[in-house]
Structures are given as structure tokens and as C-alpha cells.
Amino acid sequence: MTGFEMFWPLVAHAFLIFCLYALLVVRRAEVVKSGEVEREAFRDNLAEPQASRVVNKAIANQFELPVLFYAVCVLLYIAEADNLPAVVGAWVFVLARYVQAYMQVTGKLLFRRLSFMAGFVVLFLLWVWLGAWMAFS
Predict the structure, then answer these.
(1) Average pLDDT of the chain?
(2) Is the pLDDT of residue 2 over 80?
(3) Where are the domains of the chain?
(4) pLDDT given at position 55
(5) Count of CB atoms within 10 A of residue 43's CB?
(6) Degrees, nearest 5: CA angle 47-49-53
(7) Looking only at Cα atoms, what is the longest distance across the chain?
(8) How far apart are CA 66 and CA 59, in angstroms?
(9) TM segments (predicted)?
(10) Residue 73: which of 92, 54, 100, 48 has the closest Cα?
């Protein structure tokens, strides 16, 4: 690759996280405004309503498996193993995260597991690619 192609999927994933935080603020404001809960309920998240709890969980999900994604992308770049298949794999992972987050926050869970598994498999393959690149370069 010639530039920073490996990092654009990371930027796209960060954008997803920022969007989820914005949605969380909106949903929490709605439940406070409706009188469903008091603002203090969010301090310890003990009584968070379902509408905002699912968004909060979607945010937490973006800091679990994606940690390995960020690490492998940076390592692929450093190792100069960030070729077209690696970049495509990174984009597939990010797309799968978008689908998974959308399914989670909308309650349309039809493809949520499938999108998680697709991202998981692609991430695993990125790590295999990195390992193979290091072993045979």
C-alpha cells in the first residue's frame, strides 16, 4: 500500500463510537424529559431504562473485540503487511461493527449474531495474516 489506507477503517470505527455516544445522550435526555427516570439514575447506571441501556451496551461492545482490531491494524502497518486484502478485511470488520451496533440499538436482532461472527472471523484472519507475514518475511 502507498499511504494510510489501513487507518481509514479505524477512523470509520471511531466515528461509529462518536455516533453511539451522541445517540446515548439523546436517549438519556428523552427518558429524563419524559419523567421515566431522574438524571441521577445514570450516575451508577443502576436504573437505566432499556432505551438508553442498549446504546450504552453497544458502546461497551465497541471497546471489547475492536481493541484487537486496532492493534492488528497498527501492527500490519508497521510490518508493511497492510496490503489490499488486509485493508479490505479491515473495512469488512468495520462494516460488521456498524451492522451489529445498528441491530443492537434498534432492537432488530435478525443479523446481529451473524454480523458479530463475520467481524470475528475477519479479525481472526487479519491476525493470521500478520503472523504469517512475520513468519515468512
Answers:
(1) 94
(2) no
(3) 5-38+48-136
(4) 96
(5) 8
(6) 100
(7) 62
(8) 11
(9) 6-26, 59-78, 84-102, 114-136
(10) 92
Other CB atoms within a 10 A radius of the CB of residue 58 amount to: 21
Element spanning 101, H or E:
helix 84-106
Quick one: cell of 61? 461492545
* Helix, strand, or coil (residue 91): helix
Half-sphere exposure of 61 (CA within 13 A, CB side): 25
Q: Is the pTM of this model over 0.85?
A: yes
Exposed/middle/buried for residue 125 (C-beta within 10 Å: 0-12, 13-18, 19+): middle
SS3 of residue 108 by DSSP: coil
* Measured distance CA(56)–CA(23) in Å, rounded: 9
CATH number of 5-38+48-136: 1.20.120
Distance CA 62, CA 97 (A): 8
> Distance between CA atoms of 126 and 4, rounded to whole angstroms?
17
Contacts of 52 (CB under 8 A, 6+ apart): 24, 27, 28, 31, 42
Mean pLDDT of 6-30: 97
Distance in angstroms (rounded) separating the CA atoms of residues 86 and 130: 9
